Amino acid sequence: MNRRFDRYLVYKALTLFVIWLLLTASYTPAHMALGFVASFGVALLNTDAGRPPGVAIRWLQLLQFLPWLFGRILISGLHLSFLILHPKLPIAPALIRYRTKLSHEPGIVLLGSSITLTPGTVTAEAQSDELIVHAIDGESLDDLQSQRLESKVADVFRIRKSAE
Amino acid sequence: MTALSIALIVVGLFFLAVAALGMVRLPDVYTRSHAVALTDSLGAFFLLAGLALNQGFSTNLVRILVVLALLYLLNPVISHATVRAALRAGVKPWGEDRR
Q1: pLDDT at residue A45 above 90?
Q2: What Cα–Cα distance (Å) separates residue A97 from each residue in A100, A119, A145?
């Protein structure tokens, strides 16, 4: 255990504790203590996943990305609802391979999660730079195949110079 | 204000109903996972947004927003885990044999 590791453990536990405080309905000492123990316990169990990435988030770009993504989710959601409600159920599902140019894990995680969050497409496998995506029809894949989604995701991150 | 929150809740319920219908109509685990994505990303969003509007500024509003944020973080993880497990177990996607 080095000091850097300890610092991230504390950050993680405190974040969880704040979420506990926001969600709990009771602020008696017993409940607070329970929440404190639970937060640290969960943080301890997840020590592997806490390594800081070599990339930084550009918050302004993230603030632009999220509303854009929500707009896309709304449009694909309406499209998917149309497919489901259509009497003939005009779906044409396909598994496709998508090679991404993103070189860092946080970017691939955001890309994969955005794909899954959008109704009509879901990330089935993600290994290094290749994603396997299942789509309900060709139209759902537009944002991915035009690389619009990927370029928006790339804008959200900045690679730190100090990272290897 | 109340009318708007009722409208949002009704929109949310519409997406939830469509997602439930999709679970029945769609043919396999992959296509059904798309219906589940509809539940969380739009159904729960509009439903919770309607409830939040109804609450006004209060601790309940903060709670609803936290739940919403957690849903948006967790839904992709769960969908991805389910679909990946299906793919690794060798479940054939519907429609593959017809191409």
Answers
A1: no
A2: 10, 18, 10
